[in-house]
Amino acid sequence: xxxxxxxxxxxxxxxxxxxxxxxxxxxxxxxxxxxxxxxxxxxxxxxxxxxxxxxxxxxxxxxxxxxxxxxxxxxxxxxxxxxxxxxxxxxxxxxxxxxxxxxxxxxxxxxxxxxxxxxxxxxxxxxxxxxxxxxxxxxxxxxxxxxxxxxxxxxxxxxxxxxxxxxxxxxxxxxxxxxxxxxxxxxxxxxxxxxxxxxxxxxxxxxxxxxxxxxxxxxxxxxxxxxxxxxxxxxxxxxxxxxxxxxxxxxxxxxxxxxxxxxxxxxxxxxxxxxxxxxxxxxxxxxxxxxxxxxxxxxxxxxxxxxxxxxxxxxxxxxxxxxxxxxxxxxxxxxxxxxxxxxxxx
Length: 346
Fold this sequence. Notes:
With 346 residues, this protein is an alpha/beta fold. It contains 13 helices and 12 strands.
């Protein structure tokens, strides 16, 4: 097992171990005195891992209840959040109990937000089962849901009590879902680690499993370093949004249906690099194409920019966006929304 300690306002550990989902009850029992828990999952992950997780929890003395909602970004909304909160109430979850997010980024985001809201705060554990969730969304304490105005516009900072990453769960991912996670891996190489980027660009989607353990550990360690220095996203942590300003816009343009988050991030990284760091553009595009990710979008820039003007990274009429002029180094740039729109339209 590898362990990464995240020293935030509420410190916790990330455990990285193949087969750890089978021992999750043992690991969770070490971070809570309660023996009552609610497992929140979706209808795809639930069918794969709920029985395993509940068995381990019950073997370690936990009383379990399970809530399952439809898979997909479309479920990350106020309606599903309300159903989860009602479920927690009906299940008798108290402030001293613990909630478990079993699934990918959508499950982790909405469960974490429910944990932050319910009874003004209940501890929760992340068991991420997708690459994107393991390397990115399960660590750092950002939780959120989408509203009609945009993606992740309603949320809270809520650090988990524990994160359990089992790389074996990635074997059940579809190629599309694995590609989605690789967009975030490529992002980490671009913003902070040239060696990680070189490692990834020398592999493809077909053989990336042979370096998966190294990828997961390295990405989490990078995020640990960034989050510890800027837990509440007011400074350096913004570099983690490389590709996301346009990526979220592309997702919104597609109504969060036929375009995954990773596809949006990939296209967003390429579009922003095309405009502000063209010397790197071809290298980045070659890398994302090796993982079956898009380098752009059919949407017109004029159609995407209205989504950017609603981005949560706006402040005082300005917008922050991230540019990588060198692999392994990110730069935070700020401009007025109108200047950003003009630059992208050019």
